[in-house]
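FW: tagging you since you asked about this chain on Friday. Here's the raw sequence from the shared folder, copied in full. Didn't touch anything.
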Amino acid sequence: MDVTKLNAGLNAGLNPAEKKEPRKTDGDGKNFADTIKSFLKEANQLQENAAEEVEALIAGETTDVHDVMIAMQKASVSFEMVMEIRNKMLEAYQELMRTQV
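HL: got it, structure written out here
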């Protein structure tokens, strides 16, 4: 067994300049950043919808309090989900920073 050929083969796999890996995607072809952006857009849209529902209720344009409360609850739950995702990502980053090389 030739040790120089083995070392050259191992080192070739470790050199990031030689070989670039494609971005990791999920089953839909989106990468992680795109998925997070879509979560943020959806949460923002739900917040805007809830604000519009409240304004319509205050202005007297609608009398259905149930729809307003449902819109507000959806916005609240989506915001809590985004915050939990943020917290988990921050915890994962901190754990990576604590790992010793």
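FW: DSSP finds three helices and no strands in the chain.
HL: agreed, and The chain has a mean pLDDT of 82.
FW: great, closing this out.
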